[in-house]
Specification:
Signal recognition particle alu RNA binding heterodimer, srp9/1, 2,3-Dihydroxybiphenyl 1,2-Dioxygenase, domain 1
């Protein structure tokens, strides 16, 4: 069984689309009047960006404590490259520079109230 999609609720749909397309390598499938967008990545994973306006609420959505989504990078160099790219984005709050996290290497950042983790895949096969 494969995961079909994840639906993320955000206040600023267009800013989220920019982050996921320009920053994280997703492709835009459709943007419906800046209220809802569907994106996909190279691994057939779909991401639905749902605008808070469709929930008929003004406040920024709040996620449960420790809820986050994570994306793997192939190595530490790729993590650093992405960190340096994302730290230029004004709409993001980066927690700290990449570092050892549990049994991997990475960093966390926030888009609105959504925490996102970028790290090296700790389960990938090591080649010598």
């Amino acid at each position: 069984m494969n995961l079909n999609h994840i639906n993320l609720v955000v206040k600023e749909v267009d800013q989220a689309v920019h982050l996921f397309t320009h920053g994280l390598g997703f492709s835009l499938i459709v943007n419906r009047s800046s209220k809802m967008a569907v994106l996909e990545n190279d691994h057939n994973f779909a991401l639905v960006i749902w605008g808070q306006v469709l929930n008929k609420k003004e406040e920024v959505p709040e996620y449960p404590e420790n809820f986050h989504i994570g994306f793997y990078q192939p190595d530490e160099e790729a993590v650093w490259e992405l960190y340096n790219k994302l730290k230029e984005e004004e709409s993001l709050k980066l927690e700290a520079e990449p570092r050892k996290i549990r049994n991997t290497f990475g960093f966390y950042f926030y888009f609105e109230q959504l925490m996102i983790e970028i790290s090296v895949d700790p389960f990938q096969e090591k080649t010598a």
